[in-house]
């Protein structure tokens, strides 16, 4: 099969993760979600985790150079086991990240094949984020919605039985920060 390098764009809560996972299953390629990687780093208290924790807790974007390094490492790691591409979910989120990705790929004579934008109205996103419940275990990372996709036992992860949480960045005050227009990916 030819390589497929895809990018999923959209506001937080648009459904990027769900659609990305479907694509990954269908194309048999890994799902590289920066939010999951960064949460994993925070949960494991790595050096990167310590650096990004304050940004994530406040719903702010982590610095471009940090996230670019994390993504490039993840791409290299994924390539070792599944060389036929990937879906990037949650990256790039700024023009600097997009430029950095393009430069890294150009050096390797590679390119992104498709960019999929999921544009969802603010009201829908707000409601979804408030209804979202997440498994705190970074190795599981299952995501539920109290209305549309509840866990079999309320508050307990179906996969690993951990107690589900409301992510710090899914609280109403943080959602407002995440939705600010200057946090949106804008194309020049
Ligand atoms: P997500 O799960 O994609 O909504 O990401 C959760 C949090 O991780 C975001 O609110 C940011 O703090 C951080 N994050 C994820 N991806 C990026 C990125 N590409 N650039 C900067 N921060 C990011």
Task: Describe, in plain words, how this protein is organized in 3D.
43% of the residues lie in helices and 13% in strands. The strands form 2 sheets. The chain has a 4-stranded parallel sheet with strand order 2-3-1-4, with helices on both faces. Strands 5-6 form a two-stranded antiparallel ribbon. The termini are far apart. With 188 residues, the chain is an alpha/beta fold. The protein has helices spanning 16-27, 34-43, 47-57, 64-81, 95-107, 122-131, 172-178, and strands at residues 4-9, 31-33, 85-89, 114-117, 132-134, 143-145. The site of adenosine monophosphate has 17 residues, from helix 2 and helix 3.
Which helices and strands occur, and which strands form pairs?
Elements: E1 4-9, H1 16-27, E2 31-33, H2 34-43, H3 47-57, H4 64-81, E3 85-89, H5 95-107, E4 114-117, H6 122-131, E5 132-134, E6 143-145, H7 172-178
Parallel strand pairs: 1-3, 1-4, 2-3
Antiparallel strand pairs: 5-6
Helix pairs in contact: 2-3, 4-5
This protein binds adenosine monophosphate.
Adenosine monophosphate is lined by residues 12, 34-35, 38, 55-56, 59-62, 67, 90-91, 93, 97, 169, 178.
Distinct small molecules bound, one entry per kind: adenosine monophosphate
Instruction: Give the end-to-end Cα distance, rounded to a whole number of Å.
Output: 34 Å
Strand count, sense and closure of the main sheet? 4 strands, parallel
Strand-residue proportion: 5-15%
| Unreliable residue runs | none
Q: Which class best fits the helix and strand makeup?
A: alpha/beta
């Amino acid at each position: 099969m030819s390589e497929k390098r895809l990018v999923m764009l959209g506001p937080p809560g648009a459904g990027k993760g769900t659609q990305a996972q479907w694509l990954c299953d269908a194309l048999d390629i890994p799902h590289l979600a920066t939010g999951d990687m960064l949460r994993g780093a925070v949960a494991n208290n790595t050096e990167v985790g310590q650096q990004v924790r304050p940004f994530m807790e406040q719903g702010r974007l982590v610095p471009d150079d940090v996230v670019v390094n994390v993504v490039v490492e993840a791409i290299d790691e994924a390539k070792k086991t599944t060389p036929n591409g990937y879906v990037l979910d949650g990256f790039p989120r700024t023009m600097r990240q997009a430029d950095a990705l393009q430069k890294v790929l150009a050096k390797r004579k590679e390119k992104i094949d498709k960019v999929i934008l999921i544009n969802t109205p603010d009201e829908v996103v707000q409601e979804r984020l408030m209804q979202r419940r997440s498994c705190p275990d970074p190795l599981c990372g299952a995501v539920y919605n109290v209305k549309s996709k509840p866990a079999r036992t309320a508050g307990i992860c179906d996969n690993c039985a951990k107690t589900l949480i409301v992510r710090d960045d899914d609280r109403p005050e943080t959602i407002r920060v995440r939705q600010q227009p200057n946090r949106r990916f804008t194309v020049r």
